[in-house]
């Protein structure tokens, strides 16, 4: 009951974070990776001792004729080198340049290259994918709760789920806008994958709580118990709270371990999942269910007016 009764406090907290997220997007935008902008990505790890510094690698890339590159260290001797789209000849020249005339040796871990046309197409399809997933989830919840009509209509369950999911998308995007500005985090197809995973995880938690609300409403009706909707929702949240928190905590512990022990190439992907899981759990418990109560209270004045008109 504490969560539902203090819902305005949790609303305010979410609104504040969303405002910060949107402000960072307007101010700095997102730093798109080669998946969306096109370009080439080369990851190497130097085996020679001592390994060259980032400045020396940058100079070697410049001397090979590649302009507009960015270099990010990975581990003690590794580097991620991002460049504009490279032709085969430019790629060969870069590989030779990174050896500094044979003075340095390295192992190539990966090389990805995407043309600007394909990158733009991927960006458009990713946006469509997110929009379709949100719409499909909302329609599914509306259908699943179609027999629930009192005191809140089934379509409002879908609307609340959509609001909660939008909350879960905006905040990670805002976080990556900040990370991109200060730490060079890029938005790529892995980030989109993380968001889709988070949406599935979040809606699962939301449906668990909504289903318990539906079950308690059914029991009240069968036993002819007249319980205030706010109390029903509060009781339902309390009954599912431990399950939601324990499930999320398990996932968070795994992600933290992966963040600390995993390779640098997946760090930002793990951060996206970590932020999304925490945000999704928060919205399912502290935003989604309380919003049902808010909508129910908003429709009461209208119901009273209709009764007066009938009299």
Account of the protein in words:
- The structure is a single chain.
- This protein is of the alpha+beta class and 311 residues long.
- It folds into two domains: 2-32 and 118-310, Multidrug efflux transporter AcrB transmembrane fold, CATH 1.20.1640.10; 40-114, Alpha-Beta Plaits.
- It is built from ten helices and four strands.
- The protein has helices at residues 2-5, 7-28, 34-37, 54-63, 88-97, 116-144, 154-183, 189-222, 229-261, 267-310, and strands at residues 39-46, 70-74, 78-83, 106-114.
- Strands 2-3-1-4 form a four-stranded antiparallel β-sheet.
- The protein is elongated, with a radius of gyration of 25 Å.
- Residues 305-311 have low confidence and may be disordered.
List keywords for this structure.
311 residues; alpha+beta; 10 helices; Alpha-Beta Plaits; 4 strands; 2 domains; Multidrug efflux transporter AcrB transmembrane fold
Number of domains: 2
- Beta-strand content estimate: 5-15%
How far is it from the N-terminal to the C-terminal residue, by CA?
A: 36 Å
Range of helix content:
over 70%
- The number of helices is 10
Structural class by secondary-structure content: alpha+beta
The CATH class assignment of the largest domain is Mainly Alpha
What does the average pLDDT come to?
Answer: 87
CATH-assigned homologous superfamily of the largest domain: Multidrug efflux transporter AcrB transmembrane domain
Predict the CATH topology of the largest domain: Multidrug efflux transporter AcrB transmembrane fold
Strand order, largest beta sheet: 2-3-1-4
Q: Helix and strand string, N-terminal first?
A: HHHEHEEHEHHHHH
Number of strands: 4
**Spans of at least 5 consecutive residues with low confidence:** 305-311
Shape: elongated
CATH architecture of the largest domain: Up-down Bundle
Major beta-sheet overview: 4 strands, antiparallel
Radius of gyration: 25 Å
